[in-house]
Design brief:
The complex is a heterodimer. By secondary structure, chain A is mainly alpha-helical. Chain A has two domains: 123 residues, no CATH class; 81 residues, Orthogonal Bundle (Arc Repressor Mutant, subunit A), CATH 1.10.10. Chain A has twelve helices and no strands. In chain A, α3 crosses α4, α3 packs across α5 and α4 packs across α5. The two termini of chain A are 30 Å apart. Chain B has three domains: 49 residues, no CATH class; 41 residues; 104 residues, Sandwich (Immunoglobulin-like). In chain B, the strands form two sheets. Chain B has a four-stranded mixed beta sheet. A four-stranded mixed beta sheet of chain B has the order 2-8-7-4. In chain B, a hairpin with a 5-residue loop joins β7 and β8. Chain B starts with a helix and ends in a 5-residue tail after the last strand. Classes of the chains: A mainly alpha, B alpha/beta. The interface between A and B is large, with 58 and 48 residues.
Chain lengths: 210, 210
Amino acid sequence: MTYSESLTESASVTPDSGAALLAAAVGAGTELQNEIYVRYRRPLMQVFLQRRIDRDAAEDLLQRTFLQAIKKIRTDGLDDPGNLGGYLYRTACKLATAYWRGELARRVDHDGELLMNLHDNALSLEEALDHDLRARCVRELMGKLPMQRDREVLERFYLKEEARSAIRESMNLTELQFNQVLWRARQRFAEILRKQGFAGSGVEALSMDG
Amino acid sequence: MDHIQFKSNQTAAAYVAHELTDQQQEAFELHMMGCSECVNDVEAWRVIKHHMPAPAVMEAQKPFRKLWWGGWGMAASFAAALVVSGVGGYLVSALQRPSLDSSETAIFNMPALTRGADECTTLAIAANARAVLLRVPGVPAERRITVTDSEGRDLASNRYSAREQRDGSWIVRFDAGWLQTDSARLISRTPGGTEEVLGCVTAMVAPPPG
């Protein structure tokens, strides 16, 4: 499966489809467990990465999250079956907190029977592109930004991690102008990714929004 | 907040830059659980953030554009400028010796923390040492190094400087005179405020070995 196909497969999940998945998952078919995994792993991975957890540890926590969820679904069910995503999210947040408190063993001996059959078809952008290609795409983006101002905003926002308010103030940018810089950068990056063959890079959606 | 608002506010970009409040972050992460488009945005911004080239790298990669008159004049000017600056630099350096030469700098690797965070390692330095450089390897990318004095107060910025090297290690520079009068506790901090004590050092003048 290609990256774009995987994106199509993991398209927006409505609460109803989550409930249907959950209801079906109680029947414990591995395909359905796999579908839950494919749908939620990328947003959950971002939840862990956002909490400064490195990718290896995040993968481990991801496995724990799904393991807990599947066990919970099988034994007790969920109070609100329509909110499977919310349940997974809360579980992930708790595990992330426990991780930073040092309450988790470094590596858990996973329930192999449950997880062995979970196949990951939905690759994230970081997983789909190797390190060098990602770096090249970002360099290309920086080279293609039309104004020095745009490059400076991105460098200060992401490289130097300056606060948006400080950048805006020093560069005399309104909130709208600041967001426009980000929007232009995101759009160009999507175009660059599309040239690399990733149709699901979001450029269509951005065009509609813009 | 709905999807359109998240998009128009460039919430994904702000999320990756850790600019959202806890409530905003939770709302956005819950939204992400069901929105592959926002997950795409977050992944793209995270790639941009992680691979953002330093401005110097971008400058170095600008393609050389050949001048219409062949560039020989430019080459000659460049050579002349080199000669002038070389001679000038020598004369200036002869008049104004650098404020710090290598014999006045003591360089150490960060001692391993073996006996507990409060145990300080004394670094043996020469009597004429004016600066102490500590190399601290193995600091996770998301963490920054700060230094406190023996009473746990953040050290004034004129007492030390810390910078990250390209290999991920940190170089911390202390005023040697101050380090002989007090101890420095090195701490790695996440933006969220989580701290880890890396060790404690102080300095003492010692005679040459042998």
